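ARCHIVE CARD
Drawer: 12
Card no.: 0347
Subject: one protein chain, sequence and derived structure
Cross-reference: see card 0346
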Amino acid sequence: MMESFLVGSLPNASSFTTGGNLLRSKHRANKNIYYASSYAPKASQQERKTKKEDNILSFQRPSLNSHFKCIEGLSTNQERNRKCVVQASPMPSFEYEHHASGAKNILDSVKNFLEAFYMFCTPYAMIGRTISTISACLLAVNKLSDISPLFFTGLLQIMIPFLFMDIYIAGINQLFDVEIDKINKPYLPLASGKLSITSGVIIVASCLIMSFGSAWIMGSWPVIWSLLACSTLWTCYSANVPLLRWKRRPVLAAMCFLIPWAFVFPIAFFFHIQTFVFKRPAMFPRSLNFVMVFMSLYSIGIALFKDLPDIEGDKKHGISTFATRFGQKPVFWFCVSLFEIAFGIALGVGATSSFMWSKIVTGMGNVVLASVLWHNAKSVDLKSKASLSSFYMLAWKLLFAEYLLMPLVR
C-alpha cells in the first residue's frame, strides 16, 4: 500500500527505482511471486515515519530539483524495509537565464547592426576622402609653425560634416540601387537584407541634416558650399526620378566624380584653412593647381573603372556605361592610361620643383606608384569580377599614397 501511495502521490513517480523489481525476480526464480499489494504486514515505527515524510514531500513543492532513490530489501523475517534518500539541488534561476539570454540577444543585434552600418558607409571611399582632406589642408601650410592646434581645429571642422556627408552619399546610391546591387554587390546591407529600406532612409536623412547642421554651426562658407555641391551632384547621380539618375548617362556620371574629387574637395579644403582658419588672402598656389590637374585625370579613370565589375547588372537594368557600350577591355586600358598619365604629370611637376628634397621624394614616389600600377594591370583577368574589383581597390590605394606626396610638391 505504501508503494502504491508513493507512486500515485509524488510528481515524478517514474523517477523511483525500487527494490521491488529485485524482489520479484528472486521470487520468480523460486516460482513464488509476491506483490506489494498482497503482502501488508504491520508497519514498523520506522516505516510509518517514512510514510509521513513522503506525504509531506508529495504535497510540498519547494524550488528544488529532488532526486529520490528508494532501496528495498528483505529482512530475515520477510518484512520489507524501505530507505528513501532525498538529494536536493537548487533549481536554476529561470529569471536570471532569461535576463542573460536577453542581454546576449541585444549584444548580437547591436553587433550585427554595426557590421551592416560599416558596409553601408562604403569605407574605402570614406578613407579616400579623409586622406584627401588632410592632403589639401596641408597645401595651405607654408611653414612648420602652421601645424598648430589652430590647424587641427580647422581640420576637425571639415572632418565632422563630411563624415556625415560621406554616409549620405554612399547611402543614397544604395537606396536607389537595391535591385542592381542584388546582382552586382549582394554583400551590401540593403541588398542582402541586413538593413531594411526604412533604416537606410532614416540613416541617410539624419546624416544629411547633421552634415549641414554642423557646418552651419561652425560657419565656414567654403565647407558649406562644398557640402551643397557634393550632395546635389550625388543626389542627381543616384536618384531615380525624372531628369536625374545621371549614372545612366556616362558623361554626366563621369562629371559627378570629376567635379567633387578634382575641384570641390581640394579647393574647398584649401580655402577653408587658408582663409577661414589662417585668415590669409585667397590664392591658387602651384601645388593646388597640380592637384586639380592630377585629380581630373585620376577621378575620370576611377569613374569609368568602377563600372567594369558591374557590367552584368548594369546591362540587365538598362544602365548605359562606357563599359556596356565599348566593352571591358578598351575601357580597362583607357583607365590604366589615365592613371599612368596622372602619375607622369606628378613626376614632371616634382622634377621642376625648386627644392631638391621635393624633387627626390616626389620623383621616386611617383615612379614606384606608376610601376606598381602597370605591373598589376598586366595580370588582371577581365572575365573575373574578383580580379577587376581587386585592381579597382589597388587604384584607390595608389591614390591614397599619392595624397601623401601632393603636399610635398612645392
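Annotation on reverse: The chain has a mean pLDDT of 79. The longest strand covers residues 64-74.
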